[in-house]
DNA sequence: ATATTTTATTTGTCTGACATTTAAAAGTCT
DNA sequence: AGACTTTTAAATGTCAGACAAATAAAATAT
């Protein structure tokens, strides 16, 4: 592992990259201990604070974990699906908000991916997944629910659907798409009528998944996609109208 | 923004989290300048090195960028699709290798997601996407190609297919699934015969996308999924056989 | 008016020190 | 001998102060 002191990049960034490469290329394996900070400083010919900044960069990506005390140190971290989930969710969320991704684009992506999971979920869902879906449907039908709570339940329903596919890689990929949509969904005010429609579609989806009927699940998801988009259009139109009348 | 000096977590981790929350919740907006390191150290009642470690954590996640000099400092970074791509690819790749995700699981996820893109790609693909796909098909047919180069071309082909959907969110989500599969695909030795089959299926996919025929594209993708899995099975079987005979 | 130099500010890096945590090793008691 | 306690060494976490390097604004010179 070498670094170039004449490069324009920060030393700590170079060191972090060098160690990251070693991990990605398998030269450092899970749970292997890195040299101590003092030894790394020696190897790279930099000071300990610089090494520490590099290690913090890696820790922020869950690539290493550190432990204090004798026989402590920095260890190559086995990145868990949970770590990867949360990373993906924050990245996706910021990506959508900062790049002003349109509701339609995000919505299309989300439901396209979800439809990819539905046939597998119809095959493999367990009673647990069905129970979660049914429970969320009940919650969504309760009166007096805030829009935020309704949205959160919506996310939980769809995550159960996705998890039903029994493929952790799919669940991981979908986590970003589904959760990152939530802030956008929160902009919608759900009337009693629209909640009724959504609960109806959720019920059809749950029924189809329970009956292992992939085609029906897909059809209901398509309808849900369309309905979500028209719902957003009408909410936007209503707001525009309210703004116009207020300005006169 | 407050931190708890009695918490078990590192001060730098707490500070990073506090600033991250401010960004995610929109209290700090894109291109806004954070206070200087000295001011932050003052605010949080810690030393400058500690603040710096916190900032490096954020920089590692592309949440901020720093600039030296007068009127420099740390600025909230607009996370780009490119940033998000590369983060997702390394995370996905490590997730697969460290958690010993089976070839079948990763493969299933990848093709399920890709099939989700195909109908959209059939609708919206530009001549550019088609040209890329055709060019990669030609490359894949050339003799004397190493397995690695063949795999890389395979990835390029499928990325063009995905990008054809014209939905950057989908492209971003798929980048992880497609690229992270590459190390697993690299374990396969592609015989002349198997390359011929794959090129044939790729041609059918490109033809279908060109003809805006979503159903045919889907059918070809399903065949490709099945074929990839049987290919991997036969490679594994051949290796097992070789091991057995060598041991006798 | 333009070009150059100066200056102030800020990040990047280094040195050295002390605090805190932790597990192994040594010691003590029953 | 075995169980408990104390000591110790090694490592990360934190701090203070200093200097280097970059950079843009301000001041100066042409």
TrEMBL record, chains A, B:
It holds the Pfam family FCD. PROSITE patterns: HTH_GNTR. InterPro entries: GntR_C, TF_FadR/GntR_C, Tscrpt_reg_HTH_GntR, WH-like_DNA-bd_sf, WH_DNA-bd_sf. SUPFAM superfamilies: GntR ligand-binding domain-like, Winged helix' DNA-binding domain. It comes from the Bacteria. Keywords: DNA-binding, Transcription, Transcription regulation. Gene3D superfamilies: GntR ligand-binding domain-like, Winged helix-like DNA-binding domain superfamily/Winged helix DNA-binding domain. Signal peptide: none annotated. This is Transcriptional regulator, GntR family. It comes from Ruegeria marina.
